[in-house]
Amino acid sequence: LDDNTTEQWILAVLRKYEEPLLRYATALCGAALAPDVVQDTLLRLCRQREAEVRDHVAQWLFTVCRNRAIELRRKHHGEAQLEEGIAIPAARLPHATLERQQLLDHALEALQELPARRREVVLLKFSAELSYREIAEVTGLGLSNVGVILHEALKQVRERLREKGVLEDGSRSSGELPQANARTRSAP
Amino acid sequence: MTREEAQSRLEAYALGELSTADRERVEEWLAKDAALAQDFQLLSELTSVLGEGLRGKPEVELPALARARIRWRAWRPLGRPKAVFALPLTAALALFSVFMGNVNLEPHTMDDAAEPSQLEPPAGSEVQAVESAEPLRAPARARRPPRAPPLALPRPNHADTDRFDFGFSPEQSPALRVDGFRSAAEPRRRPLSRASELGRFLDAEAEPVSTFSIDVDTASYARLRQTILSGRTPSSADARIEELVNYFHYDYPAPTGKAPVSISVDAARTPWAPEESSLVRIGLRARDPGPRSTSNLVFLIDVSASMSPEDRLPLLKRALGTLTRELSGRDWVSIVVYAGRTAVLLEPTRGSNQEVILRTLEALSPHGSTNGSGGLQMAYDLARRHFIRGGVNRVVLATDGDFNLGIADPDELQQFIEEQAQSGVFLSVLGFGASPSGDERLDLLANHGNGNYAYIDSEQEADRVLSQQLRSTLQVVAKDVKVQVTFDPHEVESYRLLGYDNRRLQREDFANDDRDAGDLGAATVVTALYELKTRRDVNARKLLSVDVRYKLPTEEHSRLLQGSGPSKFVRFDDAPRDLRFAAAVCAFGMLIRRYPDTGIANYDLVEQWAEDAIGGKDAGERRQFVQLVHALADTPTCNPPFYVHNGIRKVKPECL
After folding, report:
1. CA–CA separation, B120 and B69 (whole Å)
2. B261 pLDDT above the threshold of 60
3. How far does B26 lie from chain A, in Å, by closest CA?
4. How far from B67 is each of B163, B428, B649, CA to CA, in Å?
5. For chain A, what percentages of helix, strand and coil (3-state, to nearest 5) are there?
6. Contact B587, B601 (CB under 8 A)
7. Nearest to B343 among A7, A67, A141 (CB)
8. Distance CA B351, CA B348 (A)
9. What pLDDT sits at residue B117?
């Protein structure tokens, strides 16, 4: 019976994290290796005791995924340095206005100029939706460091956008403050 | 909080990472500082667009094979046998190529082999070596063994399938709650025949009508062959006469009219009692509707520990591999495994994704107990969910029969199976390994589940059933086929049906469309032999009439087809080759099954009759039969050492 619930749990984890893990692995080591990385991560999860992993499963998954991705990339491409190769994927917003799509394109372009470490933190935040604490555990950065890095990264992106004239101060004052992302989460 | 501090916390605020106190302080600043508020608005827009943009569909999907592996693993998470050897990628590829080539393959467990034996939860950013399971595709730089075939990349499965609910547990279905099927299956239960009636002549005046369900299975012959070739003496339960006879092909004329079935009747003197009785052969031949329809197959595979021997799971994998190689992109395959519990390993996957299916099969290894499971239910549910209208929808159960379906009572099991069959999903049972108790159970399942049952004892047999005769195995052209023979008591004194011992029906069952019966696959032929004692030299045409009832695969009302009696009697030696061969096989079965009144029949004569009738489409198999009889004839014991003639038991001269 224990096995049965563990099975359900693993399948639920698979459903929930399959796509975020694939995105993260793709950014770390490319689309060709990503399915292997995610497969290995989940197979490894199957060997864990549920009770030991259950309350920090996201952190566990992304840590294993990260290690595996770096390892495979090193094996196949000979690049050990994370700096050289974390790719922010191009993205389409299917239902967005042209303006919004342009904003995204420029933002991604600006992200590409960030150091790899910062790019990764941004990805873990926005693509994998990890909390600051989880990001800190996965990347080995200090918790406050994560906050600083995100702050610096987004600031830098905003600055680049302003330089390009995408975000002209005062040009988008119409409308209310978008609050969608100001979700309440347990504070660190 | 200073303005500086508030500004540095804007991101954390926008992302919901601030404590309540900090949040309030940032909000205070936003309320009073317009520049900060504007910056925050830009930031919010940025985070919103990034969130949406970076959470899109990933560039790649997890291939079906990876998903199958994860499910397999999730299904048996801990307490598995530990890996004893590691299998490097190149070796895995080589083994896989061997598997593709259908060469004998030692059992191995790829998935177990490549697992690290010890895993600690990873810590920090330290790069930790994680041994990989077999990669999904050959990496560009990996060296391939020189003769391995090029591996096509497993394409992601584009089947537009729902996420399956894996939450099925036997508790949810009251019908499945009881377990202990194995013990409850005893004492053995053979519907509609009592041992005392077995092979007795029936008085044509008292019972002029004989009714039975067709049986197209061939499992009994393959099992018997295995028993004899392994040097054991077959027991009477080993032979279902009709399954022996129907193992071979007989050339009946194909149906020409609208009906999907033709009836042929001929007669000759009985070889074992030429002075006393005659043999009447009734042959049905099903239409060949041309190319196989689109198939929706669910492999339900027993992976319990009892499946370990070479002739079970390893052979099973090769057999289903043979079947898989026959499939095309129009077909769909799903894989469900069961032992202690049940799991869907592979969601419906196109038949053209052969590599995914084959490698999923290859990764299976025997495991654990055979406690209750809802495997059948799950497989039927899956088949129904992906039902192909007008196509072949079939659960292919592969097992040694030493399994527990979770239904104790044979009647209950029968009812369950019949209910499932009504949904239009048919059943094919593939038996593996010589487990005498399993045989009867599997036969019962196939009988009541709109099914057929084949016993796979070798790769040749797998090839025969799952490749050469795949269409007749899969594609039903007439279902619930019943035969009713009416004898004219003025001409016939007594008669007996040879075989079909557990397929006999009551007279009124014939027209009762709720009464389940056997199905005819594409181009299948099926044969029944009656032995009858006539009153005098009679007009053969008046002896009997044959009626056949069948349903078209999609219909629920039966149709009637009528055939006439044989046109003439001939001496046995003048009979058609096929009739002589069928008689020989029948006599062989009667001897093993200890039928009474087998006249002068013994294994030497059977061998001779059969040898004289070698030829036709399946000459090779007939020749093999002769060798089989020879092997038994050579055994020192006379089996049985007597024969019964007119109710008197006589010792055979050679056994004196």
Report:
1. 21
2. yes
3. 12
4. 12, 26, 65
5. 70, 0, 30
6. yes
7. A7
8. 9
9. 31
